[in-house]
What we know:
Layout: H1 4-23, E1 29-30, E2 37-38, E3 45-48, E4 57-62, E5 70-77, H2 86-94, H3 96-107, E6 110-120, E7 123-132, H4 140-143, E8 145-154, E9 157-166, H5 170-182, E10 184-185
Amino acid sequence: MISSRLQLAAIMFVSVHFASCEAIAAEPWSDAESGLRIKPPPGYTVRQMSLAAPFTVRVAVKEPGDRDTGCQVAFEPLPQNARLSQADINRIASEPDWRERARWSIATFSDVSEEQPYLQSGIVGVSLIAEMKPTFAAPDRAKALRNFMAILETPKGRTTVVCTAEKERFESRRAAFLDVVHGVEPPRL
């Protein structure tokens, strides 16, 4: 049997440990080559992932319990954007046609339930909420998930954030997903 003093010490240790976990800010992350920077929300960590074309940077931003949920941030250089100013790109991204192309790019395999302009750090983009079409040939697990996506373009390229949660948990994680997106600073020239 544990003495009451040891029980109290254990409770104090656990309390201090959890309190310190809540108070510790997540570590900022940056990629020197591209200039992509991420300040994850508390409780989230950033881990580099293997690259997949056309991305030159790809990272996971997740809570400790996330396996196939959480967020991914990827950067794709777009040399054709270099001739445009951020104001030019923002004007293009503000047009309904640009947002419709973003929606169309995932419409083959996803049903988009929300699409709206998105503004962050002087960059106009688009945010989307989508889930796998039930008719699309994909694992059942993929069909049990809902995705929040944000696409931001700069003269240097396109930064894409995709955050995923089980459909029944999506709304409870939505605020944290927005915090992840707000913590992303796309590369600039």
